[in-house]
Amino acid sequence: MKYVQVKCKRCGDIVNIPIDDEILSRAEKSPSGLTGVSVIHGDHIVLAYVDSHGNIRSIEVVDAVKRTISYTRMKRIPIPKDKTEGLPSLDLLSPIEWRILAFCDGKRSIGEIADLVGMHYFDVKLILEKLYQKGYIKEIRTVLS
Ligand SMILES: [Zn+2]
Description:
- The protein is an alpha+beta fold.
- The protein folds into two domains: 1-64, no CATH class; 67-145, Arc Repressor Mutant, subunit A (Orthogonal Bundle).
- The chain has helices at 21-29, 95-102, 110-117, 121-134, and strands spanning 2-7, 14-19, 34-41, 44-51, 56-63, 74-80, 137-144.
- The strands form three sheets. It has a three-stranded antiparallel β-sheet. Strands 1-2 form a two-stranded antiparallel ribbon.
- The longest helix has 14 residues, at 121-134.
- The radius of gyration is 15 Å and the shape is globular.
- The chain binds zinc ion.
- Zinc ion binds at residues 8, 10-11, 13, 41-42, 44.
């Protein structure tokens, strides 16, 4: 595991962004060429967008949100389209839609994504339904965990 150090825009401390092969391959497959990495930093969360070479292309800081629902055995997992599957232009996405999409890896559930980006479950669910309707998400799969 390699770490890239960046300065936190919120508190000014150094943040270590972990970068491994899985992250690089996720960025490689992602339509935007970037993938989101989330690091908890005190009461806030640093979101780093990493390209397939392990370079950090942008940083966002969001407030951590307390988990509002308990996890059930049913998980809903958004499956993003990859680069080869043809999707609408990423320029049409709002910053928040773009953020959520960058954290979809086909394995994380909506609840896990919500925790990573510091948003409420139902807000993330709503955005994912929009992304699905607009054709950025292939399906939202329900699985038993
Ligand atoms: Zn910080």
